[in-house]
């Protein structure tokens, strides 16, 4: 009987049930997931395919005349961040994010609800976006335009609530404006609306979440902070996963450096993670930064580099280069495991519980760089899906690695 709790330093499942902050939803498969309500369907069509929500308005009109969209309840508590990845493919206006305390109209107008509201509009034709605050009288105390961008391509937009009455707006990770004295009340709703005024509009939503922290399921409380906007709720062979989009969004998980105290200077350590890549040979090396659990100043981790090989400084001062992956289809879910202990062939790399490479283990474990998942502490971010990331302060045995691999398709996490 194996004990996979023994020596467990951190365990980040990346399951929506283990996330701190209310998980709204991701559009998965061919259905509108979560508690989403549609409206205005006679004005166009609403569909979900391959994880993308498409809202198409077929007939233009005046503002708020022929809108079509979806909405759902949401909590945006102090410290929370609402993240959306969306594009506006044509037309004049699209209410990409609307937040309000109630109301029945398509756009959450304060004058209609009697409560303050916020709407982030996108204009594909003018390559601009506008954040509009509206008070209960319909007046606009704040209305700011975001820098010019091509909103016909996917953009990551965020609304953060750092204080009880403060809201910050970000586009692709850069702050665009701060709004003070904002009060959405207790019950809030999020809207995605196509409302093209005189020109029909169409928007596509890839995902939406308001996750702020990834819970450590070990007993050590090494909870990770979400940086950027990885998609959450993506299906995997063992439950759910995070989807990272590489250098295009610069998303990752910042693991507390208390992990360094647990690992640095030890004789042994192990790392295990389920991964799925979009390609066996990535086009862009900037999309290959799996993680950072290594010596400060060491070379970068890549899984995998553009030549299809792995590169690992993991737990080391000297990187292990050209770890071959011949015959392994990395576009399928696979379990990557690295173990280390001193001596001949003490550092080993496994894929799907099979050893694929080994070198001599260094005398002690080196982990004094920033601890990160989805980023290698340089300019390389991870592109692909990750789930069940585990760190141990000991070298796992073949039997224990087999046990981790045999969890696949069970959809139940066991420690």
Key words describing this protein structure:
single chain; 415 residues; mainly beta; seven-stranded antiparallel β-sheet; 30 strands; 42% strand; elongated
Report what the structure shows.
About 5% of the residues lie in helices and about 40% in strands. It contains three helices and 30 strands. Strands 1, 19, 20, 22, 26, 27, 28 and 30 form an eight-stranded antiparallel β-sheet that branches. The chain has a seven-stranded antiparallel β-sheet with strand order 3-6-15-8-9-10-11. The radius of gyration is 23 Å and the shape is elongated. The protein starts with 7 loop residues before the first strand and ends in a 10-residue tail after the last helix. About 5% of the residues have low confidence.
How would a textbook summarize the main sheet? 8 strands, antiparallel
Helix content: under 10%
| Quaternary | single chain
Number of helices: 3
Low-confidence stretches: 102-115
Derived structural class: mainly beta
The end-to-end distance, rounded to whole angstroms, is 12 Å
Strand content: 35-45%
Mean pLDDT: 80
Tell how many strands the DSSP assignment holds.
Answer: 30
Q: Rg from C-alpha positions?
A: 23 Å
Q: Per the principal axes of the C-alpha atoms, what is the gross shape?
A: elongated
Would you spell out the secondary-structure blueprint of this structure?
Layout: E1 8-12, E2 19-20, E3 37-39, E4 44-49, E5 52-57, E6 68-74, E7 81-90, E8 94-100, H1 110-113, E9 117-123, E10 128-134, E11 142-145, E12 155-163, E13 166-171, E14 174-179, E15 188-194, E16 202-209, E17 213-214, E18 224-227, E19 231-236, E20 239-245, E21 252-254, H2 258-263, E22 269-276, E23 291-292, E24 310-312, E25 320-323, E26 334-340, E27 343-351, E28 354-361, E29 372-373, E30 383-392, H3 398-405
Antiparallel strand pairs: 1-30, 2-17, 3-6, 4-5, 5-16, 6-15, 7-12, 7-16, 8-9, 8-15, 9-10, 10-11, 12-13, 13-14, 17-18, 18-21, 19-20, 20-30, 21-29, 22-26, 22-30, 23-29, 24-25, 26-27, 27-28
């Amino acid at each position: 009987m194996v004990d996979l709790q023994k020596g467990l330093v951190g365990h980040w499942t990346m399951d929506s049930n283990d996330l701190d902050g209310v998980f709204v939803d991701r559009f998965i498969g061919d259905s509108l997931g979560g508690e989403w309500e549609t409206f205005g369907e006679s004005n166009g069509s609403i569909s979900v395919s391959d994880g993308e929500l498409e809202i198409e308005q077929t007939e233009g009109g005046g503002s708020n005349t022929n809108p079509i969209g979806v909405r759902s309840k949401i909590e945006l508590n102090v410290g929370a961040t609402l993240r959306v990845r969306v594009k506006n493919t044509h037309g004049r206006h699209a209410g990409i994010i609307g937040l309000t305390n109630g109301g029945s109209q398509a756009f959450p107008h304060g004058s209609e609800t009697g409560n303050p509201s916020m709407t982030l509009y996108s204009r594909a034709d003018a390559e601009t976006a506008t954040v509009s605050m509206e008070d209960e009288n319909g007046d606009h105390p704040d209305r700011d335009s975001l820098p010019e961008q091509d909103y016909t391509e996917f953009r990551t937009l965020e609304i953060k609530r750092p204080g009880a009455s403060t809201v910050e707006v970000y586009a692709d990770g850069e702050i665009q404006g701060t709004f003070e004295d904002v009060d959405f009340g207790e019950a809030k709703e999020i809207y995605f609306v196509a409302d093209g005024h005189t020109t029909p509009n169409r928007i596509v939503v890839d995902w939406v979440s308001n996750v702020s922290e990834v819970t450590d399921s070990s007993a050590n409380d090494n909870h990770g902070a979400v940086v950027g906007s990885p998609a959450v709720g993506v299906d995997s062979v063992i439950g759910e996963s995070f989807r990272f989009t590489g250098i295009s969004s610069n998303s990752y998980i910042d693991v507390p450096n208390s992990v360094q105290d647990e690992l640095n200077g030890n004789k042994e350590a192990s790392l295990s993670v389920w991964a799925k890549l979009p390609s066996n040979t990535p086009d862009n090396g900037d999309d290959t930064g799996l993680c950072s659990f290594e010596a400060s100043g060491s070379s970068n981790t890549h899984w995998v580099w553009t030549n299809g090989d792995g590169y690992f400084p993991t737990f080391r001062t000297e990187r292990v280069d050209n770890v071959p992956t011949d015959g392994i289809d990395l576009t399928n879910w696979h379990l990557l495991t690295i173990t280390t202990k001193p001596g001949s062939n003490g550092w080993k790399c496994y894929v799907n519980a099979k050893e694929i490479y080994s070198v001599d283990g260094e005398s002690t474990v080196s982990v004094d760089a920033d601890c990160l998942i989805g980023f290698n502490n340089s300019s390389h971010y991870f592109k692909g899906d990750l789930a069940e990331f585990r760190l141990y302060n000991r070298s796992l045995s073949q039997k224990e690695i087999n046990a981790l691999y045999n969890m696949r398709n069970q959809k139940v996490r066991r420690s």
